[in-house]
Amino acid sequence: MAMTADSHSSHDTWLVAQLAADDLAGPDRAAAERLVARCDACAELFADIRAIATATAALPAPVRTRDFRLTPADAARLRSPWRRWVGSFAQPRFAFVQPLGAALASLGLAGLLIGVLPTLGISQSTSGTAPAPPAAARVTAAAPTAAASDAKTAPEFAAPAGTPAPVAAGAAPSAEPAPSSGEPGSSSLRVTTPSAAPSPASGAATAQNPSAPVESGMEPPATASTTIGMAPIVTGPPASAAADAAPAPGGSDGSAAAGAAPASDRAGTQSGPSTVGGAPGGSNGSAAPAAAGSAPASAGLGVPTVVTPGVGGQAVPENAIPSSATTSPLVLVSLGLLLAGVALFLVRRAALRAMR
Amino acid sequence: MSDLRATAGAPEPLDAAPPLDTTPSSGAPLDAAGADEPRAGVARREPPDDPAQRRDTILIERARGGDLDGFNQLVSAYQDQLFALVARMVPDRDQASDVVQEAFFSAYRNLGSFRGGSVRSWLSRIAINGAMDLQRARRRRPVQPYPELEDESWQPPAGPEADPEGHVLTHERTQALNAALARIADDQRAAIVLYDVEGYDYAEIAEMTGVSLGTVKSRIHRGRLALRTLLEHRMELFRG
Q1: Prediction ipTM score
Q2: Which of A193, A228, A274, B130 is found 20 to 30 A from B56 (Cα to Cα)?
């Protein structure tokens, strides 16, 4: 009795396939044989599976198109212990190594950037045309030496707000422009003078500008701090003078005047809280080339570029190697990640090349 | 290198083993070359009864001793079979060739890991693993589906006695079946090729593919059912 197509849909085709492969025994086999005997569709399926299996076995063999014998060069390459070791990484189960290496290297690079970049003071575009964030200027002015307290510098710092004011970092004995001072990006400058003589003007600046914050906790007593824009101007320790200036948005550049007494003097000449050119669009920011008037102040990460007097009075960037950054755990871990990632990437790449 | 590559062409029949020089590269007869003491890490085995297996064992020993010619005799004996096997699993011919070449490279590198048994199965296992890896890589980064095997080399050779109608029918059937094989799951295709085409039994396939016996059966049955579904409207090619 043939079963209908409707009833075939409920039949176990898996059982029929097993029967076609002769893989059944016992009651399962009997059940499958009953299905094939009573259901036309099951019988057709059974015959079709067998026909397909027969046709598959009779498939013509594909003809190879090249000889796979090994050459002596192949043999030498494959027997090299180094290549065998490296070649083991070319196996597909190590396919994850390359993306893993790239990911680790990326993480390490990002960590390095996060850890090192702020200390380098490398920041946004420092070109004169680029808009700057709210100006931040920090000046650490120190007591000048005899040369630093040169009266020639005083008028420059007394320039009215809003006019480009050359920075008087050169007032210090290390008055030569710093190597980086003439380049955009020298967002700040600290000039260390060889003399540790205290500046009488520093105290005067504090006296003249009582509203200026004084970092008395961090700095020697002769330090006065005043704010240019968003950041304070700090009159630094007696032996150093630093300027850190950033241009203000709206085109007014922050003015940084580094110099021992002059900075204090200038602070003294500013009225009120000594806010100089920091407000966005403000007009009191003075486009001052930082460090001896050669570098336009730029917005940075607020990290001063440190310049120390070198041989012959040549200013040398102090933070060319940021010692604090290289020793921080973040930088070390990032460096490790970067190296490990690059190593993994290169080993896998070399392995793949070795296998070719 | 080019002289060896240039010899590709007429494949040698599988059963026609290349002339066998049983003298190892050192010049000493193989049985005398420390045969009384088993090699480190290699169990002492009785010589196989199968002549082909005995030949393979000798060639493997020679290759282990650094005799490249011994290994190349193995390559000559099995390269057609391996290519046919891989080409059915990886229908792209260039990729199949690469897989086979890589399989022989891998076999040469890992001669020390051969623990006896059938060299044919050992080489097939390496080639199958390579083909499976390639298919997995293709699944991860799909580029193009496999060509539906329209390569002319899939056509069986037509002898002068073959009637044109039969030849066309055979060609159509081969094309349809290859196209269907290219569309089923990779593991099912591998199992069907190994079982129906290569003639391995369930246990050998299970060992080669690293799955259980039941899984092998399941893959074969499901693969056949899938083929039948794909070929349902062309079954007249197979029923005649």
Answers
A1: 0.71
A2: B130
